Amino acid sequence: MSSLLSTAPVKRLFAPALRRLEARGRITAKDTAKSPTTTGSGHDSGVHAEVAELRKQVEALRYELHYTELLFGDLGGRGNRRPTSKQIAHLEKEIRAVTGVESPHAAVVQAYRSIVEVELRGVGRIAGGTMNVLGKLVTTPLLAPPNGQVLEIGTLFGLFSCCMARQMTRYGVDYRLSIVDPLVDVQIQPGRPNGSDRSGSPVSEPVLRANLALGGVPEERVRIRRGYSTDPAARAELSDREYGVVIIDGDHTEEGVRADLEWAEKLVAPGAIVVLDDYGDTKWPGVTKAAEGHLQDSDRFEFLGSVATSAFLRAT
Ligand SMILES: C[S@@+](CC[C@H](N)C(=O)[O-])C[C@H]1O[C@@H](n2cnc3c(N)ncnc32)[C@H](O)[C@@H]1O
After folding, report:
1. Whose CA is nearest to atom 5 of ligand 1?
2. Which residues does the annotated region (Disordered) include (predicted)?
């Protein structure tokens, strides 16, 4: 009991009641650890009854915390999907600044539910923290891309694509997904070790296809091109249309991001949205460097702003 009482959420929840009891001089931190077996005055037994009731509530809360942790905590190779209200409020402020949408709260809640649902249903994981993923999912459709052709460079397990498909549907957009990723069982990141994923699932085409099916993306709405975004053959195949949304989330080196930005310039429809993942993230300095360098020279992309750790560009 005493160790549980020392956990932050429990402390917060019960602090007012414990303060009241302490203020009456009838309870100390030690008392909360022992059973109220002694019989005392009527006042004492009232205090003990209150302590017993608190203990029951702590037990119930411990149960709640445990399964919340199993479902949404960062166990099992996935990220923590329990955003605080402060994080959500901050994210909404950023979304408002980039999109001009005054109240994005409902959109944020809907997208959050999709992340949880799609990750629970599929295998592997969505890469990135909850704020980063939510920022991309909410901001992109609110920027009203000119068409529903979505290109994702770097998909990992495809679960983010499933969520983006859901977002497009949510806004009545007739979407089509194009995905390019080497899909060689491990995540490729130049300059970093390419070990197996912490979720335990292989980064492979069968896993990707299974996830797209589990995530509710019909086969006819998606095409998968195995390979690197710099492969001439992959580029040729994927350059057959003008995209309304391009998500750059593949090779995170400065050269890799620059190459993807240069390619994206040639692929986008006027007014298209380019989402540049991990922009401003100190773990991936190459992304920010490449974006800054590219934007200095580019007259095709306008920088709209950033939300969490993604930059949003609009094609002229
Ligand atoms: C950060 S993960 C993508 C995460 C995914 N978009 C998500 O949100 O869950 C990066 C992926 O890009 C792949 N990748 C690396 N270099 C690439 C390239 N040049 N072209 C396409 N994909 C690449 C990696 O193997 C990995 O699957």
Report:
1. 155
2. 25-47
Determine the 3-state secondary structure of 296 from DSSP.
Answer: helix
Is 183:208 a contact under the CB 8 Å cutoff?
yes
Q: Is 178 in the pocket of ligand 1 (CB under 6 A)?
A: no
Alpha-helical (H) ranges within the chain are 2-5, 8-23, 42-72, 85-99, 105-121, 130-142, 159-170, 205-214, 232-238, 254-267, 285-297
The per-type count for the chain, helices as H runs and strands as E runs, is 11, 7
Q: Is the CB–ligand 1 distance for residue 127 below 6 Å?
A: yes
CA–centroid distance for 50 within its chain: 41
- Please tell me the residue having the least CA distance from ligand 1 atom 19: 228
- Report how far residue 153's alpha carbon sits from residue 219's, in angstroms, rounded to the nearest whole number: 19
What are the per-10-residue average pLDDT scores of the chain (316 residues)?
52 73 61 52 84 95 92 91 98 98 98 98 97 98 98 98 98 98 96 90 98 98 98 98 98 98 98 98 97 95 98 98
This prediction has a pTM of: 0.88
- Give distance in angstroms: CA of 217 to centre of ligand 1: 19
297 CB neighbour count, 10 Å cutoff: 8
- Ligand 1 contact, 135 CB (< 6 A): no
Report which DSSP code applies to 284. Answer: -
CA–CA distance, 249 with 260 (Å, rounded to integer) = 9
DSSP lists the bridge partners of residue 306 as 311
Query: Dihedral sign, CA of 277, 280, 281, 285?
Result: positive
Q: Which atom of ligand 1 is nearest to the CA of 152?
A: 6
Rounded to an integer, what distance in angstroms lies between the CA atom of residue 182 and that of residue 211?
17
Cβ–ligand 1 distance for 164 under 6 Å, the answer no
